[in-house]
Amino acid sequence: MSSKRLAVVGDGMVGRRFLEAIVERDPSWEVTVLAEEPRPAYDRVRLSAFFDGVSAEELSLATELPGVDVRLGEAATAIDRAARAVRTERGEYPYDKLVLATGSAAFVPPVEGADLEGVFVYRTIEDLEAIKARAQGRRHGVVVGGGLLGLEAANALRLLGLETQIVEFAPWLMARQLDEAGGGVLRRHIERLGIDVACSTGGTKISAASGRLRMETNVEGLAFDTDLIVFAAGVRPRDQLARECGIDVGERGGVITDTACQTSDPDVYAIGEVAAMEGVCYGLVAPGYTMAEVVADRLAGGEATFPGADLSTKLKLLGVDVAQFGAMDGPLATTYLDPAEGVYAKLILSDDARTLLGGMLVGNAEPYPLLRASVGGPVPAQLADLLSSGEVQAGLPDGAQVCSCNAVTKGDIMGAIHEGCTDVGALKDCTRAGTGCGSCVPMLKQLLAEGGVEVSTSVCEHFTQSRAELFDIVKVTGITTFSELIARYGVGAGCDLCKPAVASILASLGGGHILDGEQAALQDTNDHFLANLQRNGTYSVVPRIPGGEITPEKLIVIGEVARDFGLYTKITGGQRIDMFGARVEDLPKIWRRLVDAGFESGHAYGKALRTVKSCVGTDWCRYGVQDSVKMAIDLELRYRGLRSPHKLKSAVSGCARECAEARSKDFGVIGTENGWNLYVGGNGGFTPRHADLLLADVDAETLVRTIDRFLMFYISTADRLQRTSKWVESLEGGIDYLREVIVDDRLGICDELDALMASHVEHYADEWKGVLDDPEKLQRFVSFVNAPETPDPSIEFETVRGQRFPAGTTERSHTGPVLLGTPERK
Ligand SMILES: Cc1cc2nc3c(=O)[nH]c(=O)nc-3n(C[C@H](O)[C@H](O)[C@H](O)COP(=O)(O)OP(=O)(O)OC[C@H]3O[C@@H](n4cnc5c(N)ncnc54)[C@H](O)[C@@H]3O)c2cc1C
Known about the structure:
Layout: E1 4-9, H1 13-25, E2 29-35, H2 56-59, E3 68-72, E4 76-80, E5 85-88, E6 92-94, E7 97-100, E8 104-106, E9 119-121, H3 125-135, E10 140-144, H4 148-159, E11 163-167, H5 180-192, E12 196-198, E13 203-209, E14 212-217, E15 223-226, E16 228-231, E17 235-237, H6 240-244, E18 255-257, E19 268-270, E20 275-277, E21 280-281, H7 285-299, E22 313-317, E23 320-326, E24 332-338, E25 343-349, E26 356-362, H8 368-374, H9 383-389, E27 401-403, E28 408-409, H10 410-418, H11 424-431, H12 441-450, H13 467-477, H14 482-489, H15 498-508, H16 519-522, H17 525-529, E29 532-533, E30 539-541, H18 552-564, E31 568-571, E32 577-582, H19 587-596, E33 609-614, H20 628-639, E34 648-653, E35 667-672, E36 675-680, E37 692-698, H21 700-717, H22 724-730, H23 734-742, H24 750-763, H25 767-772, H26 775-778, E38 797-800, E39 803-806, E40 818-825
Parallel strand pairs: 1-2, 1-7, 2-3, 7-19, 9-16, 10-11, 10-16, 11-12, 18-20, 33-34, 34-35
Antiparallel strand pairs: 4-5, 5-6, 8-17, 13-14, 14-15, 20-21, 22-23, 23-26, 24-25, 24-40, 25-26, 27-28, 29-30, 30-32, 31-32, 35-36, 36-37, 38-39
Helix pairs in contact: 1-7, 13-15, 21-24
Bound molecules: flavin-adenine dinucleotide (FAD).
């Protein structure tokens, strides 16, 4: 029998999955693949990683496929159904069966000027290369679209160093996955990163002038002057080949198929984003993979059918967890909102409140797998408990889907672990889980732990070492740069996980000013400008006020600076004064006035010591038994500038009445009749924890020495972003073990810890002054790199209660978490 000829049009994610499946199930097919792109299939879901330094080669999905002829850069131009052949500009390819896997094209709304130079879409590696080239030396970009794709594109522009504006036609972000409240919480997260958002806004016309672009909008008087525009406003199936040869297409596009993925021509199948499965187009990769398997099965003689698709999504967008599962709407809803932490959750319930129908999560997607697996069943525990426990994976049923890109369940993963998979890499190879968007990788680690496997503590894929190991390496080798560390001990170019972690280690070990040389590029946004970025692109300035004690003269200086620079002032919970609304180019001028008056940076922006609060102490208080103010000042001056895995907060109370709330701090001190009690490992925030008593009734010298050791032991051994509370809990033996190490010197390391702290105290230098004294560092404090004297005109204010606020902010009344626990009838 002559061989069977199979033609495949499109070598994208789904096309490639199909090729792998057919080669495995029925290698007797002679396969020709017509691929328009110049390179073989690559991971489009991870496309944005390209801007994190992941190369096109690393994104490639190309595999050895015997018997498959992939013709790169050769697009199909027509299908001749009568002759059963596909045409290209180079030739004609006969087929017995044809599979269309042409995917989608980015949708560009009919806006005049959308074809101008500097206007892009976000779909292929070539698109990203062109965006990157255009961004060189430019400062501003607009993304049209505030859905999943638009937010990814906005992050890409941000990574390219552009000020970024999102323009979204719907009234809120991610309107297809979130309700208005969820979209609002997401918006606040995104604006905090310095990305501007304009909702209910659409571009109407683009024009070019003097090398820049101007986009006019449907909102009167609103236009954006920008350097580049990216359309990321949805996709349209690439169905023209089918349309032109008379195969049925859907009213809203897409090649119509039945559940066998067969089109109106029984010899032609359609899979992936081009397919309109029973009229529905799926814009996600998982349903496409299922279709690929169905067709491979059919061509191998099977009878598989498409079982339906779960459109649940869980993503980390710009560092923010967002998830949606099941129904978006229903008869009852229960919601949870914590505006301070930026967490929103909503569960949709049946009429009798017994069955979970769906829901959405913003800011904390920990409960997603459990909730998603519970859709159609009884409502799980209290939503608030689920959101705060962080232990939800343990209750996950076996049928719960862990990897939605590849439809892998917890049961599949536990099975693989029992068969011998002992790390994430092996699980990826064995089950494909984690090989799509990668958002389930942390969960794979948790399941390995649940399966009794000791889990790797490596910082990220670029370093196999834990943060503690990297700390030791830097300490022992004396390496002072990230590039040397990764060249000698890591792989690749680094990422958002390892760069700030290494920056913190270098700073903890006295690596010089954090904006020195290449160190500057490693820092988070706030560290980059030694100030906290606010929602309208301005910064806040927090001078250190040790122990909360301040002279009238210094108070007057703060008042004058705030008045002269038009800054909103607020007394913070950490007993100091925060000045908001500073333009980036004003920061050095503000610091100059403050530094001249004797102030220094309060490190409100850093993972470092923030404040040491105090009560009024013995001098003024009738109950005080110790001088809490002096102790707080001494401690704050000793540990100022100390960089650590997470922020550090402290407080000193002069007596057991505890007015400074020392037991909610990383280290807290309480005066007693006989001396001082030291508490460690407390924190406020989302999951409050009272600190544990480490020492009782000790003198000041012992107290300070023990805090020195506590901090240095924590900094040397904790994981990245691990608060002291979690670190103490993670120590085998907990607080008792900690006491043995830093008080009894069980490990013999106390001299070293003491020396590390002595070095910190000796080398401390104010970071603001370090910038003021260095013309090169000063150069980075401009709004526009190419027009240093020009302030950003997009920053606007309005006056409320006698002070300046960012223009257009409406929700100022929230004061704390609002828990709406009981179901409300809609
Ligand atoms: C930035 C980005 C992020 C995404 N994130 C996610 C996510 O997190 N989760 C998720 O599930 N999905 C995500 N997606 C969607 C996902 O990438 C698609 O669902 C998936 O790629 C669809 O695979 P496909 O093979 O159908 O189409 P594609 O991957 O687009 O492949 C189609 C291929 O066919 C080629 N082609 C088209 N016409 C012809 C022709 N006439 N001749 C020859 N070749 C042709 C195209 O050039 C292309 O190479 C994302 C997409 C993008 C762009």
